[in-house]
Amino acid sequence: MENKSEFVPSFRLLSNPDGTSKFEKGKIPTLKSMNTTTFWISTMTEEWEKNVHPAPRRQYVVTLKGKILFKVSDGSTFLIEPGIILVAGDTDGVGHSWEIMKGDQWERLYIPIAEGEDDFFIPDSE
After folding, report:
1. Domains in the chain and their CATH numbers?
2. Are 55 and 98 in contact (CB under 8 A)?
3. DSSP secondary-structure letter at 51?
4. What is the percent of the chain where pLDDT is above 70?
5. Which of 8, 38, 92, 110 could bridge to 15 as Cys pair (CB 3.0-4.6 Å)?
6. Which residues contact 50 (CB under 8 A, 6 or more apart)?
7. In the predicted model, is pLDDT for residue 2 greater than 60?
8. What is the pLDDT of residues 86-98, one digit of tens each?
9. Residues 6 or more apart from 115 whose CB is under 8 A from it?
């Protein structure tokens, strides 16, 4: 039986071959060295983020404060809040949209995933 403390809940956004987007629910292992070189913190929403958009790069998005509802092409949604990591991988096609569900600000860390490196995401289906 797996120890829950060995994983953090996660969702991963992906691009479909037809340009639409989808998501998977899963987890990321803890205490795993990940290939990153930088990160930044954001509390602002830029204009391009207010509409449907692809991820600008493969990256982890770690919510520090806020509850955010993400929506993909088929209308499916999922909720991100502190303690759940988003793996943004829908870098092609139409992408996703999001809206703040609680409060008026989303505080988050962006941690780019090095080119060609594993994101360590394990889908619940496995």
Report:
1. 4-123 (2.60.120)
2. no
3. S
4. 92
5. 92
6. none
7. no
8. 999 999 999 999 9
9. none
